[in-house]
Amino acid sequence: MNLPINFPMFMSMSLNSWSDALSQWVPFGVPLGLVVVAAIPLVFIALYALTYGVYGERKISAFMQDRLGPMEVGFWGLLQTLADILKLLQKEDIVNRDADKFLFVVGPGILFVGAFLAFAVLPFGPEFIGADLNVGLFYAIGIVALEVVGILAAGWGSNNKWALYGAIRSVAQIVSYEIPAAIAILCGAMMAGTLSMQQFSVLQQGEYGFLHFFLFQNPIAWLPFIIYFIASLAETNRAPFDIPEAESELVAGYFTEYSGMKFAVIFLAEYGSMFMVSAIISIVFLGGWNSPLPNIGTFTLNDWTTGPVWGVFWIASKGFFFIFIQMWLRWTLPRLRVDQLMYLCWKVLTPFAFLAFVLTAVWEIYMK
Amino acid sequence: MSEYFRNIASGVTTILTGMGITLRHFFNAVRRKGDAGIDENAYFGQVDGLVTLQYPREAVPTPQNARYRLYNDIDDCIGCGQCVRACPIECITMETIKVTKDDLEVCGKTSGGQQKRFWVPVFDIDIAKCMTCGICVSVCPTECLVHTPVSDFSEFDRDNMLYHFGNLTELEAEAKRKKLAEEKKVAAAQKADGSTEK
């Protein structure tokens, strides 16, 4: 057992100490610690998708439409998602006859792996990060875009007109929205001067809480913030940019032909990338795992709410807050037409992203 | 160019307005929408709140005079067969046996005081066919055939939709039939005797 005795639980704030300690835990020559490091985000995605993702979204949508939502399975329908999962597990794994069997099977896998790989660079707190890459942010936005491959494989492999339409729309949309999203994120990177996700959070630390967040450090930061949020909606295929799965025209878009566990995996990937983009936006602009509460005189709220466990709490609640806004928008806005989608990307978001980029650069060089 | 910015501005304001509306509904989901009917003044005031009714546990009360499931109070039925004739889709089946003179007392009277002259061994309503037009109810002279406010009477077996209201068992009905036949025979014999005497 190489597990260090002085495992820093709630005491220190040395960066990445939990994940470093875990990764060095190699009992009997088996790198079990690395497995645990990888398992933590996986369990997190599964739990959050099961509870907040599916159940929460159904409840939120129901309340916004004056309905009750799931009420029958368990108290307030709390066991509804478990029942759904049990149903999906029992379903026959259908691969339709004329499908491209390899692509059909591999599509959901790529989707999920793409969504899950991004969690490698997500700091779950000051003490825990899968891999503290110096190009973490670049890696994250790059790996989220890997989903395109999975979507295209799923849509093409299904050999179904709706699936193919959905896949092509999705690819066009994600590739287009990468540009404003990346430029907006670049504004954040300029403010930080680094691409490491941990360094982003460290730079936004301070006794005034939220005032140290990049969103409030710069008079133009709200513009890339909003641009990235809109573009992230499009990248995760959420409404109002859900034209790839547009139920009313394309049945279910690129996953029309999927059922059972493959369908569940696609769903999990969608919720995984929803949390990932929410986490990215909260790390770049809203301080990641830093507490937003300021120190006021003797009430050192910031000091009280800072620590490894608090960090997990803050980053999870910031992510969930943005997911709530994503759901809120989904149940408010109708779907955009394809041409409106492209108009918004190329004629509105991209020019404004460039403008924000230049203004941020000017601010960083001359004003700061 | 100014139209471009106007579009953006109107896009932002309309999105915010819409989000305000959905958020208001979201927070109002803690209470129920009132149950004022359309004839009440409060009807148009109840915009927010949950509208879902969890049906098997709660239901909108059915109106007093509404037409739902048919019920025949067989003790009041005189077996006149008007409902059978009135029914447009022939969902009522009725069989009657005339009451013999000595049984009139046993058969009794309706609650309205009318002497019943027929046994009704079979009074079947195929409620699956019934379209609740209510013509049978309106022609019923003793008002024994009525609509009840029961609106949910679905069944797993179609045969259960055939409602039996007859008040005699098969054996009883057979006995009554025999009795009637004997009485007729006696009457016919008396008639024959009378005609020969004259």
UniProtKB/TrEMBL annotation, chain B:
<dbReference type="Pfam" id="PF12838">
    <property type="entry name" value="Fer4_7"/>
</dbReference>
<dbReference type="GO" id="GO:0016020">
    <property type="term" value="C:membrane"/>
</dbReference>
<keyword id="KW-0479">Metal-binding</keyword>
<feature type="domain" description="4Fe-4S ferredoxin-type">
    <location>
        <begin position="68"/>
        <end position="97"/>
    </location>
</feature>
<protein>
    <submittedName>
        <fullName>4Fe-4S dicluster domain-containing protein</fullName>
    </submittedName>
</protein>
<dbReference type="InterPro" id="IPR017896">
    <property type="entry name" value="4Fe4S_Fe-S-bd"/>
</dbReference>
<dbReference type="GO" id="GO:0016651">
    <property type="term" value="F:oxidoreductase activity, acting on NAD(P)H"/>
</dbReference>
<keyword id="KW-0677">Repeat</keyword>
<keyword id="KW-0411">Iron-sulfur</keyword>
<feature type="domain" description="4Fe-4S ferredoxin-type">
    <location>
        <begin position="121"/>
        <end position="150"/>
    </location>
</feature>
<keyword id="KW-0004">4Fe-4S</keyword>
<keyword id="KW-0408">Iron</keyword>
<dbReference type="InterPro" id="IPR010226">
    <property type="entry name" value="NADH_quinone_OxRdtase_chainI"/>
</dbReference>
<dbReference type="GO" id="GO:0051539">
    <property type="term" value="F:4 iron, 4 sulfur cluster binding"/>
</dbReference>
<dbReference type="GO" id="GO:0046872">
    <property type="term" value="F:metal ion binding"/>
</dbReference>
<dbReference type="InterPro" id="IPR017900">
    <property type="entry name" value="4Fe4S_Fe_S_CS"/>
</dbReference>
